[in-house]
Amino acid sequence: MKDGDKMSSETTHLYKIEDFNEAIVDNTLKDVFEALEERGYNPINQIVGYIMSGDPGYISSHKEARSKIMQLDRTKIIEIMVRSYIEKIK
Predict the structure, then answer these.
(1) 61-69 contacts: CB < 8 A, separation 24 or more?
(2) In 3-state terms, what secondary structure has residue 54?
(3) How does pLDDT run across 17-53, given as a tens digit for each residue?
(4) How far from 47 is each of 7, 56, 85, CA to CA, in Å?
(5) Residue 25, Cβ density class (10 Å: 0-12 exposed, 13-18 middle, ≥19 buried)
(6) pTM for the full predicted model
(7) CA-atom Rg of the chain in angstroms
(8) Which of 26, 41, 69, 83 can pair with 36 through a Cys bridge, CB separation 3.0 to 4.6 Å?
């Protein structure tokens, strides 16, 4: 929607749950990445360690990063990451 456009009450908007889930995972991973980076960790190594093991100790509690990532299903994180990767290489 452009600036000045108004949403009409007569317009139906279609949202796919997958798009919503992907946005949640994207935003959460971004927040966790930034929190880990601020603490001096290698965010990629820490996130991969968490996804592979399920051990929340890989994720700092700084800025509630640990509690944020634990709200996500690790399988869903992997699914969304793989889908995103495949779409980029197509």
Answers:
(1) 62/35, 62/36, 62/38, 63/31, 63/34, 63/35, 63/38, 64/35, 65/31, 65/32, 65/35, 65/36, 68/28, 68/31, 68/32, 69/28, 69/29, 69/32
(2) coil
(3) 777 889 999 999 999 999 999 999 999 999 999 999 9
(4) 39, 10, 16
(5) buried
(6) 0.78
(7) 17
(8) 41
